[in-house]
Amino acid sequence: MAKNEQFVSQIADIETDFPQWYTDVVLKTKLVDYGPVKGTMVIRPYGYAIWENIQRELDARFKAAGVENAYFPLLIPMSFMTKEAEHVEGFAPEVAVVTHAGGAKLEEPLVVRPTSETIIGHMMGKWVESWRDLPLRMNQWCNVMRWEKTTRPFLRTSEFLWQEGHSVYTSGEEAETETLNMLRLYEEFAKNVLCMPVLTGRKTEKEKFAGAVATYGMEAMMHDGKSLQSGTTHYMGQNFAKAFNVRFTDKDGTLKYGYTMSYGVSTRLIGAIIMTHGDQRGLVLPPPVSPVQAVIVPIAQKKEGVLEACNALLERLKRAGVRVTLDDSDNSPGWKFNEWEMKGVPLRIELGPRDIEGGVMTVFRRDTCEKDVSSLSDAENAVTELLRAVSENLYARAEKRMRERIVPAETLGQLLDGVNGGNFVRAGWCGCRACEDAVKETAQATARVMAEENTAKTCVVCGKPSVHTVFFARAY
Amino acid sequence: MAKNEQFVSQIADIETDFPQWYTDVVLKTKLVDYGPVKGTMVIRPYGYAIWENIQRELDARFKAAGVENAYFPLLIPMSFMTKEAEHVEGFAPEVAVVTHAGGAKLEEPLVVRPTSETIIGHMMGKWVESWRDLPLRMNQWCNVMRWEKTTRPFLRTSEFLWQEGHSVYTSGEEAETETLNMLRLYEEFAKNVLCMPVLTGRKTEKEKFAGAVATYGMEAMMHDGKSLQSGTTHYMGQNFAKAFNVRFTDKDGTLKYGYTMSYGVSTRLIGAIIMTHGDQRGLVLPPPVSPVQAVIVPIAQKKEGVLEACNALLERLKRAGVRVTLDDSDNSPGWKFNEWEMKGVPLRIELGPRDIEGGVMTVFRRDTCEKDVSSLSDAENAVTELLRAVSENLYARAEKRMRERIVPAETLGQLLDGVNGGNFVRAGWCGCRACEDAVKETAQATARVMAEENTAKTCVVCGKPSVHTVFFARAY
Question: Which residues contact A59 (CB under 8 A, 6 or more apart)?
Fold first, then answer.
């Protein structure tokens, strides 16, 4: 038995010790391991396969929207960081810096990219000349680095993988529209691919991206009622265009600065999936991103005909486009059941002598933990249909939980009670930083996003008229 | 008109100034640009799309062979590098080093990975326990960094993208077999996807990977007769297993060190394609990796029915799985012809009023620069068939050139004449380092790979009996 496999059933209690449950699950299912440098992670094959599925689905959406992929250098001259005042203030404290290379000290220190607005802005300044060159819409899949003090696999690590899209437009309206379009693209993706409901909206000044005019976020409710920021889009106005001289000759012959925007999601989404859908048995993976969608477990596999029937079913389901595997290892069926349940595989198909004789298969659904019998002859349709049903149920269940756990508050006391109870709290806010800070101090909760409409009457802190209705929550 | 587009026809002469031809082509076709830090490159969308096609084809081959993808950290503790004596000697001079992060000096400097044998070895040591865990076969797609003094886009840059596969086996025989299997996988890929013939074989001790027992390479002949190392596979024996304590309990209950191997190809392959197939008009891209396989250019596009017919053909070819685009810009047909020829698109389909009336299309083949007329009604088959023919011709042409340009030599003078004439030289070698160095000094040529059989009689330098028949060439 290999390391990490010895105590598969020992997962901490999900209700009373959710942080330990998370750590147990990500390590025991071999999604991830700790790297040798503090704060780094190794994404193991089972975890990386989820990321590949996320990439494939998102990348297809970007391409359909007309965005092209490119690749920009990892190392950014330190001087670039300082060209946008808010940007350097936000990121300088957490960058890793290359000071030596090729056996010599560098003339200028180089920053390992925490995000690429600066270097992409620099290149856009080189490339953009005429209004005919715009819009310019690019995306890159890459690694980024932010030196964090407290780290957890997928949620916050010094290095992580992500995509960052960057566009430049001739007008602020177009760039703002794209900022909202990409937020909607993320929301649709979260719903249909991750089976995860999200709250979307604009961030407060305090919570926005360093250097942005406006940041929009999508927030997802985790099992413990805390929020996980799962994606952000940023409208930059001309901040970066001016810092990096991104100018174009407009139709009227005058030279103007462009308007930029950016957007990103990361391997954090894997953490979001785990903490949205997981249960006491371990992972519950959404079918669209699950590396294995169905596992066939033979019953009495040494009996004549069992493995043959399992292999025949395996081939049929593969041809139908299902990501399916057959577990014909020497382990007992019970051991296999536990293992694949912990690994979150959406469907388990049990096939034994009696099933084969009866022309049926027994299918276990990971989301409901219920078994049902269905006809072997129609296995392709049954499995495809069940995978769709699992996806729908996962989304519906999470959506119901989020809906039920958004509670209103009119006072700071109610807000504190709300977040203590594992809820998101919807409350009025006067718009001032002092009240936002007071919520943080009193309830350890932050403004996650602002609602589109202000429906609250008064600020939850100071009682003055509400300017924005805000969703407050404790957050990862 | 945007920057870089103003002088599209000004490409240096391919025969008399190949280095400048290369630079002109990669910049003017917008494959790549220089990054702000010396020696770095930006892979622009047109170049990155080639890389995506390379990735998709190779990744499918790895997965079919049972290799799983994973992701290991970018930063490696300096102490890891020193655990394998040859490895640190080879790579230490060209690493970039992170000394500060999160606003403080690090206790131990961290190396930006030049390759990941050390950190993957460390993790394998943590994961591998029993013979049941083996073989363990993983691959990662990532960026790596090697601080180089002289750089050229795609060919040698301080940062580049690649894949690196790493496996550990219970026996040396299995690891060696995998080393040769992966070399053959690369060779098949080069032939069928890049349309590029290669010479494969074992490298000399001087040319092998730092820390390997044996390195195998595939070498491709560029337009100027120089060789480009296009992929390598390495058998490590127990060197890294011992350095990183990768041990397993064998079936007999004893603890043994594993045997490791690794293999990699990089964005250098894009340079290989350019310099293998390109001509005076610019790029000639192999259909399997070309971002655009066919471009439709309307003739007299303002005439009634022309754009409609072009769009109808576009949709038909898309449905047939062809990567096709329609150039309905305001530029003249002649300008479009030059542009798409320079960009190396395999097929250009011209469609004008007379073609439409006659139910035909005119197809220009980029490889032969010849035009032919074929029936519009059978366009899907015609285009698919022509793409296959272009691929075959590109390979056949390059293979013929390589075959004709491998010449024998029995003396150092003949060897010098051979490489001066733009050839690879096949010659005997006694096996000693002094003679290998003498070839380098006299002819600026290196041992690219050793032939499987020694068919030469005497060493081309010292005249002693030949031990290996070697392919010598000047190399990038």
Answer: A69, A141, A163
pLDDT of residue A85: 87
Is residue B346 classed as helix, strand or coil in its secondary structure?
coil
Q: From residue A106, how far is each of B99, B102, B296 by CA, in Å? A: 12, 19, 49
Integer Cα distance of A49 and A47 in angstroms: 5
- pLDDT tens by residue, B397-428: 999 999 999 999 999 999 999 999 999 999 99
What DSSP designation does A132 have?
Answer: G
- Spatial distance between the Cα atoms of B75 and B161, rounded to a whole number of angstroms: 16
Q: How many helices (H) and strands (E) does chain A have?
A: 14, 23
Alpha-carbon distance of B98 to B101, in angstroms, equals 7
Q: What is the pLDDT of residues B158-204, one digit of tens each?
A: 999 999 999 999 999 999 999 999 999 999 999 999 999 999 999 99
CA A241 to the chain's CA centroid: 28
Place of tokens 């760039």: A175
Interface touch A96/B100, C-beta < 8 Å: yes
- Is residue B234 scored above 50 in pLDDT? yes
Which among B73, B95, B143 has CB closest to A40? Answer: B73
The answer to whether B5 faces chain A, any CB pair under 8 Å, is: no
- Tell me, what's the pLDDT at B452? 96
Q: Which of residues 47-86 of A touch B (CB under 8 A)?
A: 48-49, 51-52, 68-77, 80
Closest by Cβ to B48, choosing from A49, A70, A127 = A70
What are the two backbone dihedrals, phi and then psi, of residue B300, each rounded to the nearest 5 degrees? 55, 60
* H helical segments located in B252-332: 268-277, 306-319
**Mean pLDDT score of chain B, rounded to an integer?**
96
Side-chain-side CA neighbours of B111 within 13 Å: the count stands at 26
Distance CA B48, CA A144 (A): 19
Chain A residues near residue B244 by CB distance under 8 angstroms: none
Write the CB contacts of B404 (distance below 8 Å, at least 6 apart in sequence). none
What is the residue type of B65? A
Summarised one tens digit per residue, pLDDT across range B247-284 is 999 999 999 999 999 999 999 999 999 999 999 999 99
Is the pLDDT reported for residue B7 higher than 70? no
Partners of A112 in the beta sheet? Answer: A75
pLDDT band at B9 (very low <50, low <70, confident <90, very high): low
Low-confidence ranges of chain A (pLDDT < 50): 1-8
Model confidence pLDDT, tens digit, residues B89-101 = 899 899 999 999 9
Distance CA B222, CA B19 (A): 12
CB contact under 8 A, A2 and B142: no
What percentage of chain B carries pLDDT values higher than 70?
A: 98
Instruction: Give the B window 142-181 contacts with A, CB below 8 Å.
Output: 142-143, 145, 147-149, 158-159, 161
Say which residues have a Cβ less than 8 Å from residue A55's Cβ, sequence separation at least 6.
A141, A163
CB contacts, 8 Å: B42 with chain A: 70-73, 123
* Chain B neighbors of A112, CB-CB under 8 A: 74, 98, 112
Using only C-alpha atoms, chain B has a radius of gyration, in whole angstroms, of: 25
DSSP output for A142-210: EEEE---SS-BTTTB-SEEEEEEEEEEESSHHHHHHHHHHHHHHHHHHHHHTS----EEEEPPTTTS-T
Nearest CA to CA, how far is B190 from chain A (Å)? 23
Note the ipTM here: 0.96
Interior/surface letters A439-450, b for 16+ CB within 10 angstroms, e for the rest: beeebebbbbbb
Q: Is the pTM of this model over 0.90?
A: yes
Across B376-399, average pLDDT = 98
Domains of chain B and CATH, by start: 18-277 (3.30.930.10), 294-387 (3.40.50.800), 406-473 (3.30.110.30)
